């Protein structure tokens, strides 16, 4: 026999999965997604002009840093813009009200939204990682040099994805109470900038209050590319850190959204 709690949990997961799938489909149809994806691939491919030089491993590191930087920058824009646009399109168009009348809880609705955007960011990161990986593989063969093993490269791309999903969760929190899409986008990007300033708050000073905010600097991939091994313990620790703030931001957004009139 299945207990009622298990049935409710399974039903809730199915509803969140349905909202996430619909969010992903809507996100893939946005011109913004296509534009940023094509722009990201183009910026990564701009590193091909280095083929006229032979810098050995230094060139490979530059290409990797440039590619991961492009993924982080354009991915941050995509996370904030897509989260805000899809949320307010549902709110302004009345779709959110229709969905919430079908026994879908507000917390389930927001969790499905952030999961859908996270799936979009995973596809975005994977696409640019594929372009970057092919470029690095070709240049490694041409130069006869070895940069980093494939598992290390995949870990670096995974760290970028974790960072981007945190930006999406921050933006979702703003969307839960903000009255306009423009404000939500600007506030989400500002919160991402604040999270990038977190590494500078180690010493006492006026920025010390930022220690309560997540530290996106922990997800920088440069140490991995420089040869610093993350290890299983470090990877699990970062994953737990990410899960903690993802749950916190989504939970706060659900609480605020619960008291919002739709």
Please tell me about this protein's structure.
- With 262 residues, the chain is mainly alpha-helical.
- The protein is 75% helix and 0% strand.
- It has one domain.
- The longest helix has 38 residues, at 106-143.
- The chain crosses the membrane at residues 32-50, 62-88, 109-132, 152-175, 182-201, 240-258.
- Keywords: Membrane, Transmembrane, Transmembrane helix.
Please provide a brief summary of the model.
With 262 residues, the protein is mainly alpha-helical.
Structural features:
mainly alpha, 262 residues
Poorly predicted spans: none
Net shape: globular
What class do helices, strands and sheet pairing give?
Answer: mainly alpha
What is the number of strand segments? 0
Rg: 20 Å
State the helical fraction.
over 70%
How would you name the oligomeric state of the polypeptide chains in this document? single chain
What fraction strand? under 5%
Taking the alpha carbons of the first and last residues, their distance comes to 38 Å
Averaged pLDDT, please? 85
Biggest pleated sheet: none
Elements, N to C (H/E): HHHHHHHHH
User: Helical element count?
Assistant: 9
Number of domains: 1
Keywords: Membrane, Transmembrane, Transmembrane helix
Transmembrane segments: 32-50, 62-88, 109-132, 152-175, 182-201, 240-258
């Amino acid at each position: 026999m299945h207990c009622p709690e298990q049935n409710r949990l399974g039903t809730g997961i199915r509803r969140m999965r349905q909202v996430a799938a619909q969010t992903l489909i809507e996100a893939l149809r946005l011109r913004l997604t296509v534009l940023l994806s094509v722009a990201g691939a183009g910026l990564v491919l701009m590193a091909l002009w280095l083929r006229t030089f032979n810098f050995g491993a230094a060139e490979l590191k530059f290409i990797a840093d440039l590619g991961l930087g492009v993924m982080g920058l354009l991915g941050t824009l995509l996370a904030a813009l897509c989260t805000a646009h899809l949320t307010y399109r549902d709110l302004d168009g009345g779709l959110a009200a229709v969905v919430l009348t079908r026994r879908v809880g507000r917390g389930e609705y927001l969790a499905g939204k952030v999961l859908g955007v996270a799936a979009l960011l995973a596809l975005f990161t994977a696409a640019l990682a594929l372009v970057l990986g092919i470029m690095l593989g070709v240049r490694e063969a041409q130069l006869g040099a070895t940069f980093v093993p494939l598992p290390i490269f995949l870990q670096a791309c995974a760290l970028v994805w974790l960072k981007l999903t945190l930006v999406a969760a921050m933006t979702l929190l703003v969307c839960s109470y903000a009255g306009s899409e423009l404000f939500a986008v600007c506030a989400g990007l500002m919160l991402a900038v604040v999270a990038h300033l977190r590494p500078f708050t180690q010493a006492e000073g006026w920025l010390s209050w930022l220690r309560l905010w997540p530290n996106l600097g922990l997800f920088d991939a440069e140490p991995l590319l420089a040869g610093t091994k993350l290890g299983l313990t470090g990877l699990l620790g970062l994953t737990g850190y990410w899960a903690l703030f993802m749950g916190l931001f989504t939970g706060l957004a659900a609480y605020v959204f619960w008291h919002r009139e739709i």
